[in-house]
Amino acid sequence: MKRLPITVLVSLFFLNGLVAQDTIIQLWPKGVPNQIDIGEKEVDTLENIRWVRNVQQPSIEVYLPSLPNNTGKAILLFPGGGYQGLAYNWEGVDFAKAFNSQGIVGIVVRYRLPNSKSIVKNRHEVPLQDAQRAIRLVRKMAPKWNIDPDEIGIMGFSAGGHLASTLGVHYDDKVYDNQDDADQLSARPDFMALVYPVITMDNEITHGGSREALLGKQSSDELMKHFSNELHVNANTPPTFLLHATDDEAVIVENSLRFYSSLKSHEVPVTMHIYPSGGHGFALGLNHTLLKGWLNGFIEWLSSMD
Protein backbone atom coordinates (compact mmCIF):
# COMPACT_ATOMS: atom_id res chain seq x y z
CA MET A 1 0.00 0.00 0.00
CA LYS A 2 1.30 3.44 -0.90
CA ARG A 3 2.25 5.62 2.07
CA LEU A 4 0.52 8.92 2.65
CA PRO A 5 2.72 12.03 2.46
CA ILE A 6 4.18 12.90 5.83
CA THR A 7 2.31 16.22 5.96
CA VAL A 8 -1.00 14.36 5.78
CA LEU A 9 0.08 11.84 8.38
CA VAL A 10 1.22 14.57 10.74
CA SER A 11 -2.21 16.21 10.55
CA LEU A 12 -4.01 12.92 11.16
CA PHE A 13 -1.91 12.07 14.18
CA PHE A 14 -2.35 15.53 15.70
CA LEU A 15 -6.12 15.40 15.21
CA ASN A 16 -6.63 11.95 16.60
CA GLY A 17 -3.94 11.87 19.29
CA LEU A 18 -2.84 8.42 18.19
CA VAL A 19 0.80 8.80 19.16
CA ALA A 20 1.60 8.77 22.86
CA GLN A 21 4.75 9.57 24.75
CA ASP A 22 6.22 6.25 25.81
CA THR A 23 8.64 7.06 28.60
CA ILE A 24 10.79 9.76 30.19
CA ILE A 25 14.27 8.86 31.41
CA GLN A 26 16.47 11.12 33.54
CA LEU A 27 19.93 11.47 32.03
CA TRP A 28 21.93 11.52 35.26
CA PRO A 29 20.73 8.97 37.85
CA LYS A 30 23.84 9.47 40.00
CA GLY A 31 23.75 13.25 40.07
CA VAL A 32 23.79 15.95 37.42
CA PRO A 33 27.37 17.05 36.65
CA ASN A 34 28.42 20.69 37.07
CA GLN A 35 25.29 21.41 39.09
CA ILE A 36 24.32 22.04 42.71
CA ASP A 37 20.85 22.08 44.21
CA ILE A 38 19.98 25.65 45.17
CA GLY A 39 16.23 25.23 44.87
CA GLU A 40 15.88 26.52 41.31
CA LYS A 41 12.68 25.57 39.55
CA GLU A 42 12.16 24.58 35.96
CA VAL A 43 9.70 26.68 34.00
CA ASP A 44 7.38 24.87 31.58
CA THR A 45 4.75 27.16 30.07
CA LEU A 46 2.44 27.29 27.07
CA GLU A 47 2.89 30.60 25.23
CA ASN A 48 1.36 29.75 21.85
CA ILE A 49 4.07 27.09 21.80
CA ARG A 50 5.41 25.21 24.81
CA TRP A 51 8.54 26.78 26.27
CA VAL A 52 10.80 24.99 28.74
CA ARG A 53 13.33 27.13 30.61
CA ASN A 54 15.87 26.67 33.39
CA VAL A 55 16.11 22.89 32.99
CA GLN A 56 17.27 21.27 36.24
CA GLN A 57 16.61 17.59 35.51
CA PRO A 58 17.73 16.87 31.93
CA SER A 59 15.96 13.93 30.34
CA ILE A 60 14.95 12.18 27.17
CA GLU A 61 11.29 11.77 26.23
CA VAL A 62 10.85 8.75 23.97
CA TYR A 63 8.12 8.21 21.37
CA LEU A 64 7.94 4.74 19.83
CA PRO A 65 6.24 3.76 16.58
CA SER A 66 4.12 0.63 16.47
CA LEU A 67 6.35 -2.42 16.36
CA PRO A 68 5.30 -3.64 12.86
CA ASN A 69 6.26 -0.23 11.42
CA ASN A 70 9.54 0.18 13.32
CA THR A 71 12.41 0.74 10.87
CA GLY A 72 15.12 0.46 13.52
CA LYS A 73 16.04 4.13 13.09
CA ALA A 74 15.99 6.71 15.89
CA ILE A 75 16.40 10.48 15.91
CA LEU A 76 17.27 12.59 18.96
CA LEU A 77 15.72 16.05 18.74
CA PHE A 78 17.35 19.20 20.13
CA PRO A 79 14.83 22.08 20.20
CA GLY A 80 16.09 25.61 19.77
CA GLY A 81 15.63 28.70 21.89
CA GLY A 82 18.87 30.66 21.82
CA TYR A 83 20.41 28.55 24.63
CA GLN A 84 17.90 30.34 26.89
CA GLY A 85 14.88 28.07 26.49
CA LEU A 86 13.56 25.10 24.53
CA ALA A 87 10.73 25.30 21.99
CA TYR A 88 9.76 21.92 23.31
CA ASN A 89 6.75 20.91 21.24
CA TRP A 90 7.36 23.12 18.19
CA GLU A 91 10.82 21.70 17.51
CA GLY A 92 10.61 18.56 19.61
CA VAL A 93 7.43 16.63 20.35
CA ASP A 94 5.75 17.50 17.04
CA PHE A 95 8.71 16.04 15.16
CA ALA A 96 8.86 12.92 17.34
CA LYS A 97 5.23 12.22 16.44
CA ALA A 98 5.89 12.88 12.76
CA PHE A 99 8.82 10.46 12.76
CA ASN A 100 6.67 7.80 14.43
CA SER A 101 4.40 7.93 11.38
CA GLN A 102 7.43 6.87 9.33
CA GLY A 103 8.47 4.05 11.67
CA ILE A 104 11.24 6.08 13.32
CA VAL A 105 11.74 6.39 17.08
CA GLY A 106 11.57 10.08 18.05
CA ILE A 107 13.41 11.21 21.19
CA VAL A 108 13.15 14.76 22.56
CA VAL A 109 16.19 15.86 24.57
CA ARG A 110 15.43 18.18 27.48
CA TYR A 111 18.93 19.59 27.81
CA ARG A 112 20.26 22.09 30.33
CA LEU A 113 20.82 25.72 29.44
CA PRO A 114 23.96 27.61 30.43
CA ASN A 115 22.12 30.51 32.10
CA SER A 116 21.02 28.44 35.12
CA LYS A 117 22.34 29.70 38.45
CA SER A 118 22.72 26.12 39.65
CA ILE A 119 25.60 25.43 37.24
CA VAL A 120 28.92 25.37 39.10
CA LYS A 121 31.55 25.79 36.37
CA ASN A 122 32.24 25.49 32.64
CA ARG A 123 28.75 26.58 31.61
CA HIS A 124 29.66 26.14 27.97
CA GLU A 125 30.12 22.37 28.49
CA VAL A 126 26.72 21.70 30.05
CA PRO A 127 24.61 21.29 26.86
CA LEU A 128 27.23 19.00 25.32
CA GLN A 129 27.37 16.90 28.51
CA ASP A 130 23.64 16.28 28.21
CA ALA A 131 23.82 15.63 24.45
CA GLN A 132 26.60 13.04 24.78
CA ARG A 133 24.86 11.31 27.66
CA ALA A 134 21.53 11.26 25.79
CA ILE A 135 22.84 9.48 22.71
CA ARG A 136 24.79 7.00 24.82
CA LEU A 137 21.67 6.16 26.82
CA VAL A 138 19.73 5.61 23.60
CA ARG A 139 22.43 3.20 22.39
CA LYS A 140 22.21 1.36 25.70
CA MET A 141 18.42 1.10 25.41
CA ALA A 142 18.48 0.22 21.71
CA PRO A 143 17.57 -3.49 22.15
CA LYS A 144 14.59 -2.64 24.36
CA TRP A 145 13.28 -0.05 21.90
CA ASN A 146 14.04 -2.11 18.75
CA ILE A 147 16.59 0.41 17.54
CA ASP A 148 19.58 -0.45 15.38
CA PRO A 149 22.51 1.04 17.37
CA ASP A 150 24.12 2.02 14.06
CA GLU A 151 21.03 3.96 12.91
CA ILE A 152 20.84 6.65 15.60
CA GLY A 153 20.88 10.23 14.34
CA ILE A 154 20.25 13.73 15.62
CA MET A 155 18.26 16.76 14.49
CA GLY A 156 18.71 20.25 15.92
CA PHE A 157 17.04 23.60 15.34
CA SER A 158 18.61 27.06 15.64
CA ALA A 159 20.69 26.99 18.87
CA GLY A 160 19.67 23.33 19.14
CA GLY A 161 21.29 23.00 15.72
CA HIS A 162 24.47 24.42 17.20
CA LEU A 163 24.30 21.82 19.97
CA ALA A 164 23.64 19.04 17.44
CA SER A 165 26.57 20.13 15.28
CA THR A 166 28.73 20.43 18.41
CA LEU A 167 27.90 16.81 19.22
CA GLY A 168 28.64 15.92 15.60
CA VAL A 169 32.19 17.29 15.78
CA HIS A 170 32.98 16.97 19.52
CA TYR A 171 31.42 13.57 20.26
CA ASP A 172 34.77 12.26 21.52
CA ASP A 173 35.48 15.16 23.88
CA LYS A 174 35.73 14.11 27.52
CA VAL A 175 33.29 16.49 29.21
CA TYR A 176 32.04 14.41 32.16
CA ASP A 177 33.02 11.49 34.37
CA ASN A 178 31.48 8.12 33.58
CA GLN A 179 28.37 7.21 35.58
CA ASP A 180 27.63 3.70 34.30
CA ASP A 181 28.21 1.30 31.41
CA ALA A 182 26.28 3.52 28.99
CA ASP A 183 29.22 5.91 29.09
CA GLN A 184 31.43 3.26 27.50
CA LEU A 185 29.38 3.56 24.30
CA SER A 186 30.05 5.90 21.40
CA ALA A 187 28.45 9.35 21.39
CA ARG A 188 28.95 9.72 17.63
CA PRO A 189 25.67 10.25 15.75
CA ASP A 190 25.25 8.10 12.64
CA PHE A 191 23.75 11.08 10.78
CA MET A 192 22.63 14.58 11.59
CA ALA A 193 20.11 17.11 10.35
CA LEU A 194 20.64 20.80 11.11
CA VAL A 195 17.66 23.08 10.60
CA TYR A 196 18.34 26.85 10.42
CA PRO A 197 21.32 26.11 12.70
CA VAL A 198 23.73 28.37 14.50
CA ILE A 199 27.09 26.93 13.42
CA THR A 200 29.81 29.43 14.13
CA MET A 201 30.82 31.84 16.88
CA ASP A 202 32.44 34.15 14.29
CA ASN A 203 31.35 37.73 15.03
CA GLU A 204 30.43 38.36 11.42
CA ILE A 205 27.73 35.73 11.06
CA THR A 206 26.92 34.15 14.44
CA HIS A 207 23.68 34.63 16.36
CA GLY A 208 24.83 36.97 19.10
CA GLY A 209 22.22 35.93 21.66
CA SER A 210 23.12 32.25 21.39
CA ARG A 211 26.83 32.95 21.63
CA GLU A 212 26.45 35.20 24.67
CA ALA A 213 24.20 32.67 26.41
CA LEU A 214 26.65 29.83 25.79
CA LEU A 215 30.02 31.54 26.16
CA GLY A 216 29.29 34.71 28.13
CA LYS A 217 29.72 38.36 27.19
CA GLN A 218 33.52 38.22 27.29
CA SER A 219 34.39 34.89 25.68
CA SER A 220 37.97 34.04 24.82
CA ASP A 221 39.16 33.52 21.27
CA GLU A 222 39.97 29.93 22.22
CA LEU A 223 36.40 29.19 23.29
CA MET A 224 34.95 30.94 20.25
CA LYS A 225 37.08 28.79 17.97
CA HIS A 226 36.26 25.64 19.91
CA PHE A 227 32.53 26.20 19.41
CA SER A 228 32.81 27.35 15.80
CA ASN A 229 31.88 23.92 14.55
CA GLU A 230 32.86 24.43 10.93
CA LEU A 231 36.48 24.48 12.13
CA HIS A 232 36.31 20.96 13.60
CA VAL A 233 34.87 18.92 10.75
CA ASN A 234 36.93 15.91 9.72
CA ALA A 235 36.47 12.75 7.68
CA ASN A 236 34.61 11.07 10.56
CA THR A 237 31.96 13.78 10.90
CA PRO A 238 28.54 12.19 10.33
CA PRO A 239 26.67 12.57 7.01
CA THR A 240 24.66 15.77 7.24
CA PHE A 241 21.38 17.25 6.01
CA LEU A 242 21.22 21.07 6.10
CA LEU A 243 18.10 23.24 5.80
CA HIS A 244 17.87 27.02 5.86
CA ALA A 245 15.92 29.96 4.41
CA THR A 246 17.71 32.74 2.58
CA ASP A 247 15.62 35.41 4.30
CA ASP A 248 16.44 34.18 7.82
CA GLU A 249 17.39 37.37 9.66
CA ALA A 250 17.94 35.77 13.07
CA VAL A 251 20.47 33.09 12.08
CA ILE A 252 21.74 34.04 8.69
CA VAL A 253 22.12 31.42 5.98
CA GLU A 254 25.91 31.80 5.91
CA ASN A 255 26.00 29.54 8.97
CA SER A 256 24.77 26.59 6.91
CA LEU A 257 26.82 27.60 3.87
CA ARG A 258 30.00 27.66 5.90
CA PHE A 259 29.31 24.23 7.41
CA TYR A 260 28.43 22.82 3.99
CA SER A 261 31.74 24.05 2.59
CA SER A 262 33.70 22.47 5.45
CA LEU A 263 31.88 19.14 5.10
CA LYS A 264 32.42 19.13 1.35
CA SER A 265 36.15 19.87 1.71
CA HIS A 266 36.48 16.84 4.00
CA GLU A 267 34.42 14.64 1.65
CA VAL A 268 31.66 14.11 4.21
CA PRO A 269 28.34 13.27 2.49
CA VAL A 270 26.15 16.37 2.74
CA THR A 271 22.84 17.55 1.30
CA MET A 272 21.71 21.15 1.63
CA HIS A 273 18.33 22.73 0.90
CA ILE A 274 18.22 26.52 0.82
CA TYR A 275 14.75 28.02 0.38
CA PRO A 276 14.22 31.62 -0.79
CA SER A 277 11.78 32.40 2.03
CA GLY A 278 10.60 31.03 5.34
CA GLY A 279 12.45 33.19 7.83
CA HIS A 280 13.54 31.65 11.10
CA GLY A 281 11.87 29.07 13.31
CA PHE A 282 9.46 27.60 10.76
CA ALA A 283 9.69 24.07 12.23
CA LEU A 284 7.55 21.69 10.13
CA GLY A 285 6.55 24.58 7.87
CA LEU A 286 3.07 23.13 7.30
CA ASN A 287 1.53 26.54 6.58
CA HIS A 288 4.25 27.64 4.17
CA THR A 289 3.81 26.91 0.45
CA LEU A 290 7.47 26.19 -0.19
CA LEU A 291 8.45 24.59 3.10
CA LYS A 292 5.54 22.27 3.87
CA GLY A 293 7.22 19.34 2.12
CA TRP A 294 10.72 19.69 3.51
CA LEU A 295 10.38 16.80 5.95
CA ASN A 296 9.47 14.50 3.07
CA GLY A 297 12.81 15.45 1.53
CA PHE A 298 14.61 14.63 4.73
CA ILE A 299 12.93 11.20 4.96
CA GLU A 300 13.93 10.49 1.37
CA TRP A 301 17.51 11.53 2.15
CA LEU A 302 17.52 9.26 5.17
CA SER A 303 16.19 6.33 3.12
CA SER A 304 18.86 6.92 0.48
CA MET A 305 21.57 6.04 2.99
CA ASP A 306 20.24 2.51 3.54
From TrEMBL:
InterPro entries to which the protein is assigned, alphabetical: AB_hydrolase_fold (IPR029058), BD-FAE-like_dom (IPR049492), GDXG_lipolytic_enzyme (IPR050300)
MF-aspect GO terms: hydrolase activity
Pfam family, one: BD-FAE
Top-rank taxon: Bacteria
Keyword Hydrolase: yes
BD-FAE-like domain boundaries: 61-263
Keywords assigned: Hydrolase
Entry protein name: Alpha/beta hydrolase
Source organism of the structure: Flagellimonas algicola
